[in-house]
Structure formats: structure tokens, C-alpha cells
Predict the structure.
Amino acid sequence: MAKKRGAPTKLFVLDTNVLMHDPSSLFRFEEHDIYLPMVTLEELDNNKKGITEVARNARQASRNLEEIVTRDMADLEEGCPLAVNGNSYCTGRLFLQTHAMSAELPMLAGSKADNQILGVVVALQKQYPERQVILVSKDINIRIKARAMSIAAEDYFNDKVLEDTELLYSGMTELPPDFWEKHSKTMESWQESGRMYYRLSGPLCPKFIVNEFLYYEHEQPFHAVVRRQEGKSVVLEVVKDYAHQKNSIWGITARNREQNFALNLLMDPEIDFVTLLGQAGTGKTLLTLASALTQTLDKKIYSEIIMTRVTVPVGEDIGFLPGTEEEKMAPWMGALEDNLDVLNKTDDSAGDWGRAATQDLIRTRIKIKSLNFMRGRTFLHKFLIIDEAQNLTPKQMKTLITRAGPGTKVVCLGNIAQIDTPYLTEGSSGLTYVVDRFKGWQHNGHVTLMRGERSRLADFAAEIL
């Protein structure tokens, strides 16, 4: 395992959870070498059975390993090249533990897998003093143990879309007070099918993203959405005001600026994919359901509403649930029931009988589906709502979004501060992933809702607790 010419490359020792989280992690270390202790292979073998995401990943990691190891039948002592399947940018090598390594770890008792991995790292450090040996693990405790023993340890960062979620695209930008002075020299404006458009050019225009909302809150408030962006010029469309009662959606009006922007996206037939982020009580589900019902029952753009969510419990699981798929999903759909109650009370003129009839009609048009049975399906002219989307991995998110057939709108709702899935963080959540990857596509829109509108108690609790 001699060092290469030039600067010595690093030697990364991988923990099992990295391979089970991302089987393609073997090809993510570019020019650096990877070392797999025997314990890692043992743990992969122990986790390969079953139909869970973890078991699937363990099997895929094993397949990747076999391909690398058997490719050239290379001498394992010399390492196997990682450049397989067209991964030519991987110039490093894979080393497997081929003999027992003894390293004194007086502080750590027993033959626990984590302690054996730490032992291997210590032995490698002694064997190759000129190289940087780094442990890569998604397990916080093994990283803390490693730091305590002066062993270099890192999290696996390649799955993170963003280092800092504060930098995540919010879907809107505030315009500075001098915006009109700098951008109105060549301004054109026109009306088209009842909407007002402006063409502007200036220094800020290259930074704008298609379908990004712009707001100017100075002497004359101005709210618009970017429709086209070409070099230093943009075409802006003035947004529709859903805060006004005459534009109410299923009796619901926007209570703040962000809700108004969200309704503009939800009601736009040209937008196929919408992501709404926001803490509890910002109105994500209510606005989405109101616009879904209007477009399904009144405008008949979509044939039905499909609602799904990840079934990750917050506390202890309540065990087996009897009944059909819809009945099993019912306890997870409390949010849907609560919001339907609100929407059903918006029509004052209907009376009790009218409301009951409306409720029955709504029930026939809303289908509750489990994520587990989504593979292979295609949804035509459906309004698909994915609730609690922050608990999805990027791979699960891809599986869901690719279900959309012609005429289907997909809306993802979530709060990345409330992730219940183990090993998922704000930076690696599927919701963060799609917000970042889809921005700038002309049929995509995103809004981060800021203000809670649930009640003064909920707002105070969200702020103070």
C-alpha cells in the first residue's frame, strides 16, 4: 500500500453504516484509497436479509464490492482499482483486511464491532505513518470515541445536498429600495389574459431564478414572479392576490405574503411540481388541500386527490393495524381530517345537510395511499400530495416523483427541522435534495412559509420551546 507519486493520498476506513446508507459511497472518494475491515464485511452480511431499505442497500454494497474485487482478480495486498463501470474519476484503490491486526486499546473493553474498527484504524496509523488515515462513519458515538483516542474521524458528507440548510433556496427574494431606479430604464409593461407583465434589465437580473417570487415592500408594495430569465433581462408577472375574499380558494384566503405566493404556485396549471417548507402551523396542508379540492371538484383539472406520507412514528409504535390499506393509513392521516374539518366549515350558506353531502363527495375524491405500494404505478391527471416529505430519502423521493404521468401535479410538504428517520439529517433529507435540484426548472415552484397562522398559543410555543 505504498503512497502514490506527488502528495500522499488519504486512506479512508469505512464503517458499515456508510455502505448501508449509500452503497455507491465506494465510488465517492476520488483519488483516495478505501480500506474495509473484516468486521464491516461481517456486519454487511448480517444485515442483508429482508426487504427494508437498509437490507437492499447492504445487498447492493455487496454486489459493488464483488464487482471491484473480481474485476481484475488483482492482488488484494496491492488493492483493487475502484475505476469500474465508467467511474474513471475514481483513481483510488480498495483494500480489504487480509490479516489480523493487533492494536492495544486499553480504554475500550470487549470485542464490540465499533471497537474492532477503531483497533484497525490505530494499527493502520502505525503501519503507514506518512499517510492520513481517517475513519468515516455516520455513527456519532464511534466518532466521539475516535476523537477521544486522537483518531481522525469524519461523517459521510457526500449525501448532503448542502452543508448549511440556512443556504437552502427559499423561493423568494426581497428587492432593495433602489431597485426601480437601477432596473426601470428599459422597462416594458403589457397585459396578457388579465395578468400584468414587466420586462426589466439591470444588475440584479442574472441572479433571479425562474418561478422565484420577488417582493418590494417600500412606498408602493410590489409582488411578482419571475417568468423568464435571459442574461441581464427578466420578465416578471404580477402575482394574483389570494388575500382578497373575491379570490378565495374553497373559502380560504392567504393570511400572509408567503401563503399568497404558495397559492399562486398551487393554482398554476403550468407548475407540475411544488415544494412547501415551513414549521408547524404555517398552513402547508390547508392551502394544498383547498387548492386540490378547487381544481378537482370545481375546475375538474384533476380526476382525484392522492395523499401519502411516510409512516415513521414519533413515539413508540402502536403495533399491527387491522383493515384495508386506507384504514391502516387512517391513524397517520390526522392532519388530513383536521384540515377537512376546517375546509368544510367555510361554506356558511350550505347548512348541515349541504355540508354532510359535500363531506361525502370529498371523501370519494381523496384516496389515501401507502408509500410501500408505489413502485410501478403511474398516476394520470391526479393531484398527488406527499406529506411529511422531510422523512424521505433522496432515493424514495425519486421513486415517488417518477410515478407522475401526464397531467399530474405533485406537491411535497414538510418541515426539515422535524426529521424522525434515523441517519437522515436536514442536509441529506429527500426534501432538501429536491428543493435544491429542481430550482430553476420552468415547471417547478418552491416557497418557504415563515409565519405560523394556527393560533397565538401555537405561535408562542414554536418560538419559545
User: Anything to note?
Assistant: The mean pLDDT is 81. Residues 186 and 200 are 6 Å apart (CA to CA).
